Amino acid sequence: MKDFVTLRVYFEYGQKVHDHSFWRKLYSSDFSIELMKRAKAFGLSQVLHLNVSKGYLENQKINWGITEIRHYKHPHIIEITDSEEKINQFLEEQKKLLLYTSILMVKNEVIVK
Fold first, then answer.
1. How far apart are CA 56 and CA 54, in angstroms?
2. Looking at the domain assignment, is residue 93 inside a domain?
3. Number of domains in the chain
4. Which of 50, 78, 96, 104 has its CA 20 to 30 A from that of 30?
């Protein structure tokens, strides 16, 4: 059985994809969809987009997210689970995409199957 770790990528709802050309930025998916597509293509085991109802990122005020339309600074999380080696390879490959995010790797989680 693989030793899994979890990587959490914290970003703002309005996060832009910075490694696209002007025209591709104009018509591309949002940041979370782009990151999930790249993770799937890379073959990572599991990826989840967690929609945060309340919270704040570093140096921000609390964002309540109580309306249907999210504020562009509202926090979101993508959670990726796979081996530490594979996640580190993915991080290296996607360095430019992840430039304006906060990343946390959680090790030694108990996984029960």
1. 7
2. yes
3. 1
4. 104
